[in-house]
Write a structure and sequence with these properties.
The protein is mainly α. It has five helices and no strands.
């Protein structure tokens, strides 16, 4: 009986040992599988990560390859033609003279243009002088108040000074018309160079070029 009990105990121990070994093998197998899975996942992640780099490179290449936007060039502005405003110069209503390329200075057209300017200007000034004389005759009155008389005399004095300047200007216009008849108009009386169309249109009675006129003004300032 004792031998049977020992044999039964030995069998029971062997079974438990065998069970423990089976459990140990299963756990070891599970651990191995888990390790393999984690390694496989890491490898998959490692493989996916470098796969993104070529895409980034492709984008960079695409950006580089994209043509640069060239800013549109602004259209070159053409030089504006000479103004044809009818108020250029001292005489309103006469358009500036438009010069042609290679045109001779002081040709017949230019002479006729400046003759028209001078005559029209002279006529306007003479009309203004006559208007002033009539105005002074109509407004002349003996005011009893000394202040009113003083104001009237001051106004008349200013108008007379303005008309005196206009009479001197009419004399210069007559001299310019005489120079036109003698083919001397448009040339500087000091150095003989051309005065220029634009300067003559701004001041039709000019007898000096801009350089000589500037020198004369400097001398006058120095002389005091």
């Amino acid at each position: 009986m004792a031998a049977k009990k020992k044999a039964a105990k030995t069998r029971a121990k062997a079974k438990t040992t065998a069970k423990k070994k089976v459990v140990a093998k299963k756990t070891a197998a599970k651990k191995t599988v888990a390790r393999k899975k984690t390694v496989a996942k890491k490898k998959a992640v490692a493989k996916k990560a470098p796969a993104k780099k070529p895409a980034a490179k492709k984008k960079a290449v695409a950006r580089k390859a994209a043509p640069k936007k060239v800013p549109a060039r602004k259209a070159a502005r053409k030089p504006a033609p000479p103004s044809t405003a009818s108020h250029a110069g001292p005489v309103p209503g006469i358009a500036p003279y438009v010069e042609k390329r290679g045109e001779e200075y002081m040709n017949e057209k230019q002479i006729a243009h400046f003759r028209n300017i001078l005559l029209t200007w002279k006529r306007d000034l003479m009309e203004e002088v006559d208007r002033t004389v009539h105005h002074m005759q109509d407004e002349a009155a003996n005011f009893p108040d000394p202040n009113d008389r003083a104001t009237q005399e001051s106004d008349f004095s200013m108008e007379l000074r303005a008309r005196d300047r206009e009479r001197k200007l009419i004399k210069k216009i007559d001299e310019s018309l005489l120079n036109l008849d003698n083919d001397e108009y448009g040339y500087c009386e000091s150095c003989g160079v051309e005065i220029g169309i634009r300067r003559l249109e701004a001041r039709p009675t000019a007898t000096q070029c801009i350089d000589c006129k500037t020198l004369d003004e400097i001398r006058e300032k120095q002389m005091g």
